[in-house]
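[Solved] Which block belongs to which protein?

Original post:
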Amino acid sequence: MKKFIVNSFLVMLSVGVLVGCGSGGTDDSESAGTGNPDFDKIMDRQELRVATASGYAPYEFIDLNASSTEVVGVDMAFAAKIADELGVELIVQDMTFGSILGSLTQGAVDVGIAGMSITEERKQSVDFSEPYLKSENRVIALSKNADQFKTIEDLDGTRLGAQQSTTQETIINEAMSPRQTITLEKIPDLILELLTENIDGIVIEDTVAQQYLISNPDIVFTDVEIPEEHRYKETAVAIKKGNQELVDAINKVIEESQANGDFDNWVAEYSEIAAESAKTASE
């Protein structure tokens, strides 16, 4: 009986040790994650899902002179570097600009990289990285009409266009008094409306406008100055709320890419490609 009791105790002790080892294994497995389920999902599936909205060169556009129809541009080069930093594959989902924030909040994508500026309204639903590019909001018009638009008051009673759901649309609503505001999903569609004189001008950031001025000599910047509080645009990455690990990783890439000149090189490279693409589109 004593021998049986001792053997039983040894068996239970062995089981306890095995269970303890099993528990230790589970703890190690759990500690391999960050504790952030959204970041861990990215690393588990080995994919970074990026929402963008093509038609906004040089940030994101389809090069008509390329054999591929994939979206290229400054933002896509930047997105590829973020994916490399994380060691995952880049998956780009092209959609309308107005759909990006909803896709983020619903978890359909991880980040939105689409020439997006930080606003207080957007910060209610998503987090943002540090700004990575700065540009100026301008007004473009047909060269034959440009002399009519010297000040912001000269735009009163005109027909103005802007990309839908953008800060440029907000500028028109808050700082201008047009007779009519036309908002469309794609910049090229607005350019067509301007060329056919269905609108008198477009509020647009200068980095984007430059491509269309190169390919369309009939379009120029006006002398209109946007009010100081609306004049400059800082572009940042929109990220699903609460994913601080991803915010930190993206900010690291931004800091490195600004310091080593990557952003300057990307803007120069893709501005040239976009201009050539725009020329092809106008032929």
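(Second protein starts here: sequence line, then its structure tokens.)
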Amino acid sequence: MTSIDIDDVAPRRTPSAEEFAAMQSSPEFQELRSRLRRFVFPMTALFLVWYLSYVLLGAYAHDFMATEVIGTINLGLLLGLAQFVSTFGITALYVRFANKELDPRAASIRNQLEGGQA
């Protein structure tokens, strides 16, 4: 394993405000934003509906939530645990999506800006 001395790394240049503004209006940046929004907004809406449903069931459907599934474990407990599982699942989906779709595009944009090709 080799170590990199901080002095061996070439400093990246800082883009100007005009270059940032130009990049924001570029098709590459718009595509990045569009892909992010197409994932984040529906996933957020889905999770909020799922969470609100759980809260409303807990508040108004006591008998349903108290339905015993296995021994003393009831449906409310299982749905509550499913909230945690779905949160981790959404996080895993986002990480995979970001690694595959967002990070390469963001790195390309950053290289264009900091490499002086903007």
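Accepted answer:
You had them paired correctly. Confirming on the second one: The chain has one domain: 24-114.
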